[in-house]
Amino acid sequence: MKSGEQFNGKKVLVLGMAKSGEAAARLLHRLGATVIVNDALPYEGNRQAQELEKLGIQVICGHHPIELLDESFDYVVKNPGIPYSNPIVEGALKQGLVVVTEIELASMLSEAEIIAITGSNGKTTTTTLIYEMLKDGILQPLIAGNIGTVACEVAENATENHVMVLEVSSFQLLGTEQFRPKVSVLLNIFDAHLDYHGTKDEYVEAKAKITANQQKDDILIFNTDDKFVSQIASKSKATTIPFSANQRLTEGLFIENETIYFNKQPIIQTSEIVLPGAHNLENILAAIGAAITMGAKQERIKDVLMTFSGVEHRLQFILDFNGRRFYNDSKATNILASKKALEAFDQPIVLLAGGLDRGNNFDDLRASLKNVHTLVTFGQTKDKLTKVAKEAGVKSIIVADLMEDAVQKAFDQSNEGDVILLSPACASWDQYKTFEERGERFINAVQKLSTI
């Protein structure tokens, strides 16, 4: 880690706890900053707040008092989930304070070069693939961000012999000022998180910050099939490497005659790849580009692609029971993710979907429901999904309460040879704390069903 002397003696407000807030507070405290943490969760039962207080960090819990801004802070480190409409955030910006998320802190302190990956869909799979591909390379990979350990914790232990493989969201990117990855990967941009960003344009601008500070000696790997991504790439100062799953390119990564090429050099036959789903070819192309750029060996890349079958909660095969194959795609928190999951299968599908209502309609999902004969829907969006499923000609539509009820109803409506797929197309927060909790509930219900 770099010295971090710029924080010594400074006064920093950490707004919002969770994992990233706690990690940022601990790190800044160790660097000699005066840290005040403000978290909405009441002190009683707030284990993180109590632990930080033992270190001598001042913690204010239960609400966000605007009077905090009278403290004359030098920095505000904001939890990514806290919107910019929060009065403290608005007030801090009016005062001209630097308001950042902890990935900015990580990038300021990391001795390791950073590969940053973002997109509306496929971030976790691509991040994991890059991490695995780099394991036998010159630099030792460290995985961080949304997928693993908080970025600033990883940065604290990173040396110049490491490379940080960092999954980043639009929420995190919006809170950056100097963030400059050595390699940035931009997968796709779809209507997502509009409840947070307000408009599609603002969402695109947030994603564009992944390459905003890159220079000619940095690399941007981008999906040339996505018009919004291509627009960002056209304005980047980085050296660009395009990829396409749909067209032959004169340079970059593409597929021809069932072979993946990088700058016209063959890498692997698509028939050798284990990871299911045509949509994953885009993730694979991007991962290959980033891995080779950072020194991965082609033999290692092939080994990974011939053995890697996916990540938890992302089109994760659970089991085969009575001729039905169960898949957990709980990480499909938007329409695009569910579209791609549905298009990965040729078999008849029983779909479990629904969750938090972010104001989207689901018209874009309609065409992808062609193989779905039964929809089991739940959560705030159940009525919207019911409407679209009827329009798509789905034969059976059933409303369920919690996941256990949905799994049983899905099985009851299924036939031998069916895929039973949890791919919610929605965030989980109306019924579950995280998409991981939702996925685990699905897995447990499936396993219980198979033992009856």
Automatic annotation (TrEMBL):
Which residues does the record give as ATP binding sites?
G119, S120, N121, G122, K123, T124, T125
Q: What GO biological process terms are annotated to this protein in UniProt? A: cell division; cell wall organization; peptidoglycan biosynthetic process; regulation of cell shape
Q: Tell me which family the UniProt entry assigns to this protein.
A: Belongs to the MurCDEF family.
Organism annotation: Halalkalibacter nanhaiisediminis
Q: What is this protein called?
A: UDP-N-acetylmuramoylalanine--D-glutamate ligase
MF terms from GO for this chain are: ATP binding; UDP-N-acetylmuramoylalanine-D-glutamate ligase activity
Question: Matching Pfam families, A to Z?
Answer: Mur_ligase_C (PF02875), Mur_ligase_M (PF08245), MurD-like_N (PF21799)
The alphabetized UniProt keywords are: ATP-binding, Cell cycle, Cell division, Cell shape, Cell wall biogenesis/degradation, Cytoplasm, Ligase, Nucleotide-binding, Peptidoglycan synthesis
Pathway given in the UniProt record: Cell wall biogenesis; peptidoglycan biosynthesis
Q: What broad class of enzyme is this?
A: ligase
> Which gene does this sequence derive from?
murD
Q: What does this protein do?
A: Cell wall formation. Catalyzes the addition of glutamate to the nucleotide precursor UDP-N-acetylmuramoyl-L-alanine (UMA).
Q: Where in the cell is it found?
A: Cytoplasm
UniProt xrefs under Gene3D superfamilies: Mur ligase, C-terminal domain, Mur-like, catalytic domain, NAD(P)-binding Rossmann-like Domain
Supply the InterPro entries for this chain.
Answer: Mur-like_cat_sf, Mur_ligase_C, Mur_ligase_C_dom_sf, Mur_ligase_cen, MurD
Q: Which residues form the Mur ligase central domain?
A: 117-291
Which Enzyme Commission number(s) are listed? 6.3.2.9
Top-level taxon? Bacteria
Mur ligase C-terminal domain: from which residue to which, for each copy?
313-426
The GO cellular component terms are:
cytoplasm
Report the catalytic activity.
Answer: UDP-N-acetyl-alpha-D-muramoyl-L-alanine + D-glutamate + ATP = UDP-N-acetyl-alpha-D-muramoyl-L-alanyl-D-glutamate + ADP + phosphate + H(+)
